[in-house]
Structure formats: C-alpha cells, structure tokens
Design a protein that fits this description.
Alpha-Beta Plaits, MTH1187 family thiamine-binding protein, MTH1187/YkoF-like, UPF0045_domain, alpha+beta, Thiamine_BP, 3 helices
C-alpha cells in the first residue's frame, strides 16, 4: 500500500509561522523506519504493508503531538494487494502515457 500523509501542529512554532521543526521530526521517523518513502512540500508518501505503514504514521503523529497542543493529520491511501514498488512504478506508468 501507499499512504500519503501530512502531519503538523495547528499552531506555529516560530514567529514566521513555520512548523518545519515538528515536521522534520515526523519525517525523521519515516526515514528511520526503513520503508520506501518520498517527501514533498505537502505530503510524505510511505510504501509498505498496512500495519507497518500505519505504525509509522502513528509514531510520526506522536512526535508532533509531543511538541504541540493540537495536531492536524491528513491521510490518503492506495490499497492494492499484491503490488510493490508502486512509489516509482505508478509515476512511470503516467510518464509512459505522456510519451504516447
């Protein structure tokens, strides 16, 4: 499965409105999990089995909750049993269609 998620404090941690410190802790947990992942400006997408992916999302959320009184979490999942390496292969299929 692929799960794209965004977790962040609902209040800024600095005068300029940045939440990057808390988000960095969440991304560090994803990175340390060993699961395939990609991070962009809005979401982190993780690939793996249901239990391991959602365990990582929970740990990342717990890390943000530890530094913020209120947290926002958004999750979108693509559940396709029997498929792996979809983090890259889904994009490759779209690129192939664009070249056609």
């Amino acid at each position: 499965m692929l799960a794209a998620f965004s977790v962040a404090p609902t209040t800024a941690q600095s005068e300029d409105g940045s939440v990057s410190k808390a988000v960095a802790e969440a991304v560090r947990i994803v990175r340390d999990s060993g699961l395939p992942y990609e991070t962009n400006s809005m979401f982190t997408t993780v690939e793996g089995e249901w239990d391991e992916v959602f365990a990582v999302i929970k740990q990342a959320t717990d890390a943000v909750t530890a530094v913020a009184p209120r947290v926002s979490l958004v999750v979108k999942a693509d559940i396709r049993p029997g498929y792996t390496n979809q983090l890259e292969e889904k994009v490759q299929r779209v690129e192939e269609q664009l070249r056609a």
